[in-house]
Amino acid sequence: MNPILEAMYEGVLDGDQASVEDNVQAALAADIPAGTILTEGLIAAMREVGELFEEGEYFVPEMLIAARAMKGGLKLLRPHLVAADVQPAGKIIAGTIQGDLHDIGKNLVCMMLEGAGFEIIDLGTDVPPEKFVEAVQREHADIIAMSALLTTTMPNMEQVVTALEAANLRESVKVMIGGAPITQTFADSIGADGYAPDAGRATALAQSLMGSA
Amino acid sequence: MQLSPPWPLHLTVDQLFYAQGADAATLRQRRPQLVQLAEQALEEAATLLAPRVIVTRRAVRAFLDPPDGPALHLETGVFRLTTTDVPISHWWEPLRHANTVFFVVCTIGPALDARVAALQASEPLYALMVDALGTAAIDTLGRAAYRRLESMLPVGWHLTRTLSPGANGWPLRSGQQQIFEHVLAADIGVSLLDSGQMTPRKTISMLIGAGAHVPRYTGRPCDVCALRETCHYQGRHYEARSTSPV
Q1: Are A152 and B195 within 8 A, CB to CB?
Q2: A49-97: pLDDT as tens digits
């Protein structure tokens, strides 16, 4: 790997935002293509962060400092990505389901997905089905990512799937779900396309749903 | 009744890490910047935490065990322990020998919720740390309330473990409604939403039995939690230092 990208990669793993930003600047100055910086430097590092979390080696706050460092680099890189017409890995509508105000887990997932190169439209918490549908129509999203922390609110996820079907959008968008009470069995029962038990695996799932895993 | 302050919540950096499911010793060693951030959050505690506890005590006249499911005959009426949606759950079993029950709601107030929301967009890492401050605080407050109740018992009495709606098979929505029928939680600024969730978010509700024939509870809440296999927050690290049955 190019030594600048390697240093950038290590900077993300260490959560060293200043180092990542310096190395993004250095990479651009060295005429490394913006798409290469993104995929081989930033996204590759965030993938390893996700894997380390999945293995129990990294903890949640470490994922966040890595994501913060990655985001710092991405901010500098973004104009160059636009200029080079580098497309995001996919567009994801995220939100906590209607009736549920919990958002920490959802926010973690959003940060990890962003770190994997996805564009995230975060609808926040207590999101009714029609808001998800409107957002899919407006944004032409590839994936809906829904979160629920309560057994009383998780059934509302099925209403979103039903609303998508009613709007003839079900075939055009993938549905992934997660949250403490959610299981694969529940995901299957409501017709979701996938379930992820944590933020690290949510990224892999989204990539899988986009056919890019 | 409201249990009187003071509620000195002596929180530590390690508690904030545990509240995020993280191993404190590991983070201290390899992430000094996170230690600084946790210390910063702790410095805000005085302005963000307004701990309050409200309790209603009800005498138990009898444990009823009719064919349609067990119930407590309280001084104020019958308190049903089963619902049709989870008929096989025995979450109520610790109450079988209770002479009295405490309905308890604890909160740290709304300021921390507002602070986390304000930080979320611009400083998500610090928002998580402040949220962890709230998690550690409400956990500590719940334990303190438990100990306070324990100290008020007649000699020879013990408390059961805490029972909370949404855990161990007690349905969330109906269980919360049952507790809120007995506790004027609005008096400490707590509201119950249709979903069963409470606001402020860092609020807990509990039902605790007590009596002369209640065995002293020495287990841990994680032992009976439905999420014990997957929960990052109460699992390996947290349970290792947990000593109070709350």
Answers
A1: yes
A2: 988 988 889 998 999 899 999 999 999 999 999 999 988 999 999 999 9
The pair of structure tokens assigned to B17 is: 């890490």
Cβ-nearest to B194 among A99, A102, A104: A99
Judged by a CB distance cut-off of 8 A, whether residue B124 touches chain A is yes
HSE-up (13 A, CA, CB side) for residue A93? 25
Q: Which amino acid is at B142?
A: G
Report d(CA A58, CA B26) in Å as an integer: 10
Cα angle A49-A55-A58, degrees, rounded to a multiple of 5: 45
Q: What ipTM does this complex have?
A: 0.80
Give the other-Cβ count within 10 Å of B30's Cβ: 12
Q: Contact A62/B23, CB-based, under 8 Å?
A: no
The token pair at A132 is: 């998800």
Task: Decide if B128 and A68 are in contact by the 8 Å CB cutoff.
Answer: no
Residues of B within 8 A of A104 (CB-CB) are 128, 131
Please say whether the dihedral angle defined by the alpha carbons of residues A118, A122, A123 and A129, taken in this order, is positive or negative. positive
B195·A197 Cβ contact <8 A: no
Complete DSSP assignment for B132-150: HHHHHHHHHHHHHHHHHHH
Dihedral sign from CA coordinates of B228, B234, B240, B244: negative
Shortest distance between the Cα of B65 and any Cα of chain A, in A, equals 28
A189: its two tokens = 């029962």
Query: What's residue B23's pLDDT?
Result: 87
Strand partners, A191: none
Q: How far is CA A147 from CA A62, A104, B39, in A?
A: 22, 10, 30
Specify the pTM. 0.85
Residue of A61, A104, A111 lying closest to B22 (CB–CB): A61
Do A101 and B120 touch, CB atoms closer than 8 A?
A: no
- Between chains, do A150 and B166 touch, taking CB under 8 Å as contact? yes
Tokens representing A75?
Answer: 């901010």
Q: What backbone torsions phi and psi does residue A38 show, to the nearest 5 degrees? A: -65, -50
- State how far the Cα of B141 lies from the Cα of B46, in Å rounded to an integer: 14
